[in-house]
Write a structure and sequence with these properties.
single chain; D-Maltodextrin-Binding Protein, domain 2; six-stranded mixed sheet
């Protein structure tokens, strides 16, 4: 049986619909109940919902064989898993942004507010840029407006929130989308099942494009 970790929310629901369409459905997961784990022995699958940032932990530690997770989480956590497919869902980008028309001087320590300290640290280390990381958990956009930081590093989808707060993206760090990941031991011992699933997903994506 393949154990699959799905992120709670719209992304996980879209991912489940893909699995269901390819013959890995589990009717129990669609029922109105409070169960946490859902099995369908006929289709040889077991699903469970997890907080998006926890999916890679479940997969890395073997509680799940495969899972769906955003590229941002993989980069931030440095998860020791196999990244099998880019599912092309949940597309956005990790970007540096700041007050419109006010790019910080390059000769001073850059104050960066972010929820993603590891991505930020690695990005600026590659540029040999000296930074001070200010870790926040929400409302990142107000940090430069209040003078707390020079710039922010955050996920940008449409850019509407930035525009409404007189901010603009300066640089794109990396494109973000949902990835199918696998536990390294599971991929070895359940290779045929996992590989077959990947091929079906890829074939479905090719047919849609």
């Amino acid at each position: 049986m393949i154990h699959i970790a799905l992120p709670k929310g719209r992304l996980g629901e879209k991912a489940y619909e893909i699995f269901k369409k390819l013959g890995y459905g589990c009717p129990e997961i669609e029922e109105d109940n409070r169960k946490l784990i859902f099995e369908n022995r006929e289709n040889d699958v077991c699903y469970f919902w997890a907080k998006p940032s926890d999916v890679s932990v479940y997969v890395e530690r073997g509680a799940a064989d495969i899972g769906i997770v955003g590229k941002d989480i993989l980069l931030e956590h440095g998860s020791d898993v196999y990244e099998l497919l880019d599912l092309g869902m949940g597309k956005c980008r990790m970007a540096v942004a700041g007050i419109k028309g006010q790019r910080p001087a390059a000769d001073k320590t850059l104050r960066v507010a972010t929820k993603f300290p590891n991505i930020t640290r690695n990005y600026y280390a590659a540029q040999s840029r000296e930074i001070e990381i200010i870790q926040l958990n929400g409302s990142i956009e107000i940090a430069p407006l209040l003078g707390l930081s020079d710039v922010i590093v955050d996920i940008v989808e449409t850019g509407t929130t930035l525009k409404e707060n007189n901010l603009e993206p300066f640089e794109t760090i990396v494109p973000i989308s949902a990835r199918l990941i696998a536990n390294k031991a599971s991929f070895k011992f359940q290779y045929d099942k996992i590989h077959a699933l990947c091929e079906k997903i890829q074939a479905e994506r090719n047919a849609e494009s």
